[in-house]
Amino acid sequence: MPFSQEHLENGTNGHVESEDAVTIPEMNLRRLRSAIQNHEISFPSQVPVFVCQSRSDIQWRMVELYFIRNWSCAALGGRYGVTMERARQVISQWVRRAALLGYLQEVPALAASVARLYERGPSAMTLPPAIPSPQIESDSLLLTA
Fold first, then answer.
1. Rounded-to-integer distance, Cα 11 and Cα 15, Å
2. Residues 68, 48: Cα–Cα separation, whole Å
3. CA quadruple 43, 49, 50, 54: dihedral positive or negative?
4. pLDDT tens digits, residue range 50-76?
C-alpha cells in the first residue's frame, strides 16, 4: 500500500471533514471543474502523468482540456477516438489518483481561516512589534570635496 493511501485511510490528512462533506474523488466532474475554475480546489500547473493508468499517453491532455480549456467529454472522445464515457472514465481515474497523491486539494476559505484564527484567541491575532528603522543623520549624507 503506498504511503499516501495509508496516510489518507488513517484519517491524518490534516483536516476534519463534516458529515455531509464530499471528498474530491467523490465529486461530480462538472462540480469539480467549477471548483477548480473558481479557485476552490488547487490544480497543478503541470498536469502529472500517471503511467500506471490506462491511456497514460493521452490522460494528461484530456485532463487539461477538460478542466482548464473547458472541453466536454464528448469533444474529448471525438478528438482522441474514444467514447464519451471512456473519456469521462479516464478523467475520473486521474482525479482519484491526483487527489490521493495531493495534486488536488481544497483551498481553505478565507472565512474559515479567520474563524480558526479567532478561536485561538487574541494572542494569535496580534502582530509582532515593528522593528524601528535606523535613523540616518543628515550630516552623514553631505559630500565633502
1. 9
2. 14
3. positive
4. 888 778 888 999 999 999 999 999 999
Tally Cβ neighbours within 10 Å of residue 41: 20
pLDDT value at residue 50: 86
Measured CA distances, 92 to 2, 46, 138, 145 (Å): 20, 18, 67, 75
Counting every residue, how long is the chain?
Answer: 145
Please report, as a single letter, which amino acid is at residue 95.
V
Q: Answer yes or no: are the C-beta atoms of 90 and 27 closer than 8 Å.
A: no
90 grid coordinates: 479516464
Q: Which long-range contacts (CB under 8 A, 24 or more apart) does 75-83 make?
A: 82/55
Banded pLDDT at 141 (limits 50, 70, 90) = low
Cα dihedral 7→11→14→17 (10° resolution): 140
34 CA to centre of own chain: 13
Q: CA-CA distance, 13 to 96, in Å (whole number)?
A: 15
pTM, two decimal places: 0.60
Angle formed by the axes of helices 84-100 and 56-67, to 10°?
Answer: 90
